Amino acid sequence: MPHEVMSKEAVADLRLPAAQPREHSSWRWGKSESLLMQTLQRLMRSKTAIFGLAIVSLLLVVSIFADALAPYSPTHNTPDETFQQPNRQHLLGTDQFGRDMLSRIIHGSRISLAVGLSSVLLAIFVGVPLGIVSGFYGGKVDTLVMRAMDLILAFPVFLLAIILMVMFTPTAGIIGTMKVVSAIAIVRIPIFARLVRGSVLSIKEKEYIEACRAVGQHDVKILFWHILPNCLAPIIVTATLGIATAIIVEASLSFLGLGTQPPTPSWGWDLKANVPWIQEHPWLALGPGVAIFITVLGFNLFGDGLRDALDPRLK
Amino acid sequence: MRRRELSFVGIVVLVSLLMSLSGFANAAESKRGGTLRVAYGNRISHLDFHTAPGYEMMWVAMNIGCGLVNITPDGQFVPDAAASWEGSPDGKTYTFKLRDNVLFHDNTKLDAEAVKISIDRLMDPETKSGMRRFYEPVDRVEVVDPLTVRVHMKKPYAFFLHMIAGYRTGLVLYSPTFLKKPDAIENMRRGEPGSVIGCGPFKFVEWVPGDHLVMDRWEKYFKEGQPYLDRVIVRVIKDPISQMAAFNAGEIDFIASFTPEHVNTLKAQNPKAQILTGKETTPMAALMKVTVPCDGKMMSEERCPHPIFGDQRVRKAVACYGMNRDEIVEIAFRGQATPWLGIIPPGTMDTVDVNHLCPYDPKRAKELLADAGYGPNNPLTFEIITDTEKAVFNAIATVIKEQMARIGVTANIKLVDKVTWLNQVLKDAPWDMDVEDRLSLLTLDSNAYLSVTDSSWNTSRHTDAKVDEYYARYAAEMDPEKRQAIAKEFQEFMADKLYWNTLSGSPFYQAAQPWMKGYTYNAEFEVHYETVWLDR
Amino acid sequence: MREYILKRLLQVIPTVLMITLVVFAMMQAIPGDPIVALLGDAYDEEDAIRLRREYGLDKPIVEQYAIWLGKLLRGDWGESYLSGRDVLDDVVLRLPITVELIILAMAVALIIALPAGIIAALRQNTWADYTAMTSALVGISIPDFFLGILLLLVFSFALQGLLPSSGWVYLPGTCPTVVCNESVWGNLQHVIMPAIALGVGRAAILTRLLRASMLEVIRMEYITTARAKGLVENLIIIKHALKNALIPTVTIMGLQVGFLIGGAIVVETLFAIPGLGTYGINAIITRDYQQVQGFILLVALCFVLVNFLVDLTYSFLDPRIRYGTQR
Questions:
Q1: Is residue C255 very low, low, confident or very high in pLDDT (cuts 50, 70, 90)?
Q2: If we measure between CA atoms, which residue out of C244, C108, C236, C92 comes closest to residue C176?
Q3: How much is the ipTM here?
Q4: For chain C, first and last CA: distance in Å?
Q5: Which of B108-112, B222-226, C14-18, C260-264 has the highest mean pLDDT?
Q6: A 277-296 residues inside an 8 A Cβ radius of B
C-alpha cells in the first residue's frame, strides 16, 4: 500500500495514540517514566477504564482459580439431573448431560482468555519484529513483508480464520486450542506489523537517529531505545482491543463448529450446542453468550480507557 | 298454519341432516389439489438417482422415479410399474409383467427393454453406482416380450424383490430415449429443467441446491386418480428449531425426518401434529477397529490385529459389559430408542433380541481387562471418533466416555465434521472406536455390503470369513423359517465377536400437520407422496 | 491522477489471482478428499479411483491450478464436484441475497449511527453522550450471532413467530427460479433480523467515528470564531462538521465490508439464508474445490474492489495525491 494512505490508517484505527512523530513528547525510556505516571493517573480517573479493568481482573481470577471456584466438574455427566432449571444446587441449571452450567462457564473462561491473550501475544511476537525490520531496512525486505501482509489483509478476517481452521482440522484439548490460537494470530499479525512499520518509518528519518548512527550505536540499540518506545502505546491499545476481537472470533469459529472441540469446556461451543434447546431451556445458551459479552465488554472498556489515558487530547 | 310451519321446519331439518351426512361421507374422500410443503434436514446431493448419496435424494427419487415393486410396512410387496411378478421356487429366476400404461416424463413408454437397460446400467462399473454391490447376485436380464422381463440370478437369492423395492432407492427406471441424448446424465445430475426424467407420480420442475426442489403432478401417471397433490415443494431446513418454528407457523406441512431429541417439544407445542414413527430400522453403532494394516499404509491388504481392539477380551470388556445401553438411550435419545445389541435393528425382518448376552456388568468388564493385561498399572486409553452430522453422536460418545471412566478406562473424543469422518473411516486411518448410525436396513441382507470382509464400508476391517459365510447362507436360503434360524445364529455370533457393536436402534420420526392425510409411514424406506392429500 | 487510478487498478488483478492461488494451495492442504464427500454413503473404493481420475484430481496441484485458471479466462468458473452444476450459475443465484443483506446491514448501521453520533457530538459530556458511547461499546462487544440468537428468542419464539426464524422470500422481480416466493413484505420479514444482527456492531464503530470527527471540527470552529450568536451560526457549524465527518465515515464503511462479509457467513448460517455465506461454508466443509475457488474469487474481487474504491476516494480528497506530489 502506498505511503500516502498513512493517515487513512489512523482514521481506520480510530485515532490511536500517535504513531507519528510529535515535537513535544517523543518517548524515550527515560522520559517515559514520568509519562507513565501521568498515564496511570489519567487511567485512575477514567470510570470506563476502571470498570473494564475490574471485569478483566475478575475474569483472570476466575480462570486461574477455576478449579477451586467451580462447584462441580465441568465434564462430569449426571444422567439423572439433566436439564434442570436454575436452582440452589445448580445456579445456572444443568445441560443435556447433567453437567453444571455454572462450572462449565467458569472453566470456559480459561479457553476464552487463553485464546484471547495467546493469539494477541503471538501476533505481537511475530508482527512487531516484522514491522521493525521491514520499516528500518526498507527496500526489498520491506516490499516482501508488506506484500505478505497485504495478502493476509486481502481476506476478510473471519473467512481466513475459517479456512485456516479447516486446514488445521479442529480438535479438542490443548492442541485444539493451539490451533485456534495460531489461526487467529496469523490473521492479526498484519495489524501489528503495519502499526510498527509506520512508526518506524516516521522516526527513521529524524536527525537524532542519524546522529546515533554517526556516533556508532548499533542498529539494534537504536531500535530498542528510540523506536520501540514510541510504538509501545499504540501496541498496547491495539493489543487490548485485539483480545476482545480474538474472543469474538473464537466464539464465532466455535459456533460454526470449527473452534476448540468438546469436551473441553468452551463458551462458543456451549452456545452453539445449546441453541437447539433455546425454547425449552433458554438459560443454557444465554449463560455462555452473556459470559462472552461481558468479557469482550471488559476488554473493550479497558482498551478504550487506556487509549484515552495515553492521549487525552484526542478524547 | 302451525302444521304447515312445522312440516316446513321438518323438511328443513331433514334436508340439513341429509346434507351433513353426505358431508361426512365426503370428509373421507381424498381432495384433489394443493401444494405439499416438505422440510428435509439435509441437502439433496444431486439428481442422478443411480449414483447420488443420501436419504434426501432417495426420497426425491422415489417420487420422481418409479420401480418395479414397492414394499408395505408389514413386508408385503405391492405393484409399482410391474403389474404382477413371479419368483421361481429355487430363487434363481424372477419374472415381471409390466403394466401397459407406464409413461416416462418424456412421454416414452416403459417396456422390458427399458428395464433391462436400467438394471444393466446399475451393474456397469463405469456408471459408478453405489448400488452395484446389491446387483452382484444378478447374472443377466432377459427381455421375454415387450411387457415381460426376466431376471436370472447366479445362484439362489431370496431377497431380489426386497432389494429392488427398498435397498436405498430400490430400482429406479431410466428412460432409454432420454439416456441417448447428449450429456443426459450430466444434465440430470445438475437438475437442468427437463433433464430429470422418471416414471413416477411427480415430474421434476426445478432444483436450487441447498435450498429447495419442486415437483409437479405427472398427469399421465399410471395409477388412476393419483397423485392428488398438484405440487410438492421440498425445502432444506437443517436446524431442528427452525424446522419446528416453520412447522408451528404452518409454513411446512411435513418434516420428513425429525430429530428424536425434540419430539416431545414438538408434541407439546403442537398437540394436533401427527408424529409418525415405528420400531427402529437403523442401527446406532460404536464400532471398534479390529485390524490395522501391518505396514502402516492405509488400505493395505495385509492385516494385523489392532493394538487395543484386536483382542476379543478387550472388545467384550468395553462394549459388552462396560457399556450401559439403557443409560446411553436415556441420556442421548431421551428415552426415544431401544437399547439393542444385535446388528439387525429392532424393526427389521428376522430381528433377534440378544441383549441378554451383554448385560451391563462393570465388575466383569474390569476382570476381562485385567485378563488382557490392563489395570491400574497399565490403564487403557483409546479414542472415539465421531462426527457433527447429528448432535446425538456426540451425546452418545460423551456418555460412553463417562461409562469407560467407571471401569478405569480413558476414552478421548475426537469430534470432526462429516467429510473428515468419512475420510478417516473409509480410508483405514488410525482410529479406535467410531460412533455413527448406519444405513437403514430393510433386511439383514442389505447389511452385507457394509460388513463383508472386502467391502469398502467394512470400517472395522475384520477379516473373519465366517461373516461372509453367514451373509451368503442367509441370502440363498429360500425357506423363511430356516432363514430365521440362520439370523439367530449370526446375531449370537456377532454378539460374541463384536466386529459390529450396536448400541441401540436409531429412531426415525416424521411430523405431519393434522391436515395432511393419506401418507403411509414406512420408515426411511418408502417416502411416497402420491397417496397424500390435504384436508383443507 | 489518472495514471494513479490505472496503477492501482492493475494491482487489483495480481492480488486477486494471488489470493486464489493461496486458497487453492490451502484447500489441497486440507486433509480429506472431495470424492469421499461426493460418494457419501454410496462410497466404493473402485468408484472413487475412477472418479478421481475423471476429475483430474490425481494431477499435480500446479497443473490443476493452471487448468482452473485457463477455464476461468474463458469465462468458465468450473463445476461443483458434488452436483455438477456451474459454479458461476450458483454464485450468481446467491450473490444478490448476500448483497441485499450487507446493504441493509449498512443501512441499519447508518440509521443508528448518524443520529447517535451527531447527538453525542453536540451534547458532548452530557448523559446523552455517555449513553450513546456506552451503547456503542455494548454494540461492539456482542458477537453478531449472539445478537441474532437473542433476536430469534424474542421475535421468533417468545412472540410466537412474529418474525420467521429461517428461509428467504425474494423481492418481486429478483427471483431467478421458476417457483418463487416473492413479496416485499415477506422479504423484509426475513431480512430484518439478520440485518440488525449484522449491522449493530458496525453502528457502534460508526457512531464513535462520527462523534470524533464532528468534535474535531466543532472544537476548531469554536476556537477560531467568536462565541456563537444564535441558531444560524450553530447550524453552519453543524453542517460543516457533518460534511467533514462524512468522508472518514464513507472510508470506514468501505473498510467494514470485510467484517460484514465475514459476519454474513455466521449470520446466514444462523438464519438459514440461501446466500453466498452458506454457499461458501458448505463448499469449504465438503472440500468442493471448484466451489471454494469460485466463492473465494468472488469475495476477493468484491473485497479488493471495495478497498480500491476506498483508497481512491481517500486519495481523491488528499490534495497531495491529487496533484501528484509524493510525500
A1: confident
A2: C92
A3: 0.82
A4: 15
A5: B108-112
A6: 278-280
Number of Cβ pairs closer than 8 Å across A and B?
Answer: 53
Contacts of A210 (CB under 8 A, 6+ apart): none
Give the residue from B177, B149, B178, B147 showing the smallest Cα distance to B164.
B149
DSSP A88: S
| B405 in contact with chain A, both atoms CB, cutoff 8 A | no
Q: Inspect the interface and report whether the beta carbons of A252 and C252 lie closer than 8 Å.
A: no
Residues C196-203 have a mean pLDDT of 90
In angstroms, the separation between the Cα of residue B388 and the nearest Cα of chain C is 12
Mutate to test the interface with C, among A1, A4, A240 (most CBs of C within 10 A): A4
pLDDT value, residue A230: 72
By Cβ distance, the residue of A163, A256, A289 closest to C266 is A256
| Phi then psi dihedrals of residue B297, to 5 deg | -90, 130
Judged by CB atoms closer than 8 Å, whether chains meet at A172 and B412 is answered as yes
Q: Are B214 and B6 in contact (CB under 8 A)?
A: no
CA pair distance B385, B345, nearest whole angstrom: 22
Which chains have at least 3 CB atom pairs separated by less than 8 Å from chain C?
Answer: A, B
User: Which residue is it, cell 463445476?
Assistant: C79
| B208/C156 CB distance under 8 A | no
d(CA A75, CA A92): 15
pLDDT single digits (tens) A213-252:
677 666 666 666 666 777 787 888 889 989 999 999 999 9
Question: 10 Å Cβ neighbour count for A218?
Answer: 10
- Cell numbers for B3: 302444521
Residue C259's SS3 state is helix
Enumerate residue ranges in chain B where pLDDT < 70.
1-28
What is the DSSP code string of B182-240? TTHHHHHHHT-TT----SSSEEEEEEETTTEEEEEE-TT-SSTT----SEEEEEE---H
Q: Which of chain B's residues have a Cβ under 8 Å away from the Cβ of C285?
A: 417-419
pLDDT for res B417: 81
Give which of B413, B420, B423, B424 to mutate to test A binding, by max A Cβ within 10 Å: B413
Q: Residue C243 class from Cβ within 10 Å (0-12 exposed, 13-18 middle, 19+ buried)?
A: exposed
- What is the per-residue pLDDT across A99-140, written as a single tens digit (0 to 9) for each? 888 999 999 898 889 999 999 999 999 998 888 888 877 788
Query: How would residue C326 be classed by pLDDT, with cut points 50, 70 and 90?
Result: very low
State the Cα–Cα distance between residues A176 and A264, nearest whole angstrom: 9
> Rounded to 5 degrees, what are φ and ψ at B344?
-90, 120
Q: Which three cell numbers stand for residue C324?
A: 501528484
User: Which chain B residues have a beta carbon less than 8 Å from that of C85?
Assistant: 190-191, 209
Cell numbers representing residue B42 in the block: 439435509
CB burial of residue B225 (10 Å; 0-12, 13-18, 19+): exposed
Nearest-neighbour CA in chain A from B336: distance (Å): 15
The string of pLDDT tens digits covering residues A269-286 is: 888 888 888 888 888 889
Q: Is B175 on the interface with A (CB under 8 A)?
A: no
pLDDT digits (tens, 9 = 90+) for C62-90: 888 888 888 888 988 888 887 888 899 88
What's the pLDDT at A208? Answer: 61
Query: Among all chains, which residue has been given the C-alpha cell 469482550?
Result: A296
> Does the distance separating the beta carbons of A304 and C299 come in below 8 Å?
no
Helix (H, G, I), strand (E, B) or coil at A56: helix
Q: What pLDDT sits at residue B353?
A: 93
- Assign A20 a pLDDT band (cuts: 50, 70, 90): very low
**Portion 205-224 of C in contact with B at CB < 8 A:** none
Query: Per the CB < 8 Å rule, is C44 touching B214?
Result: no
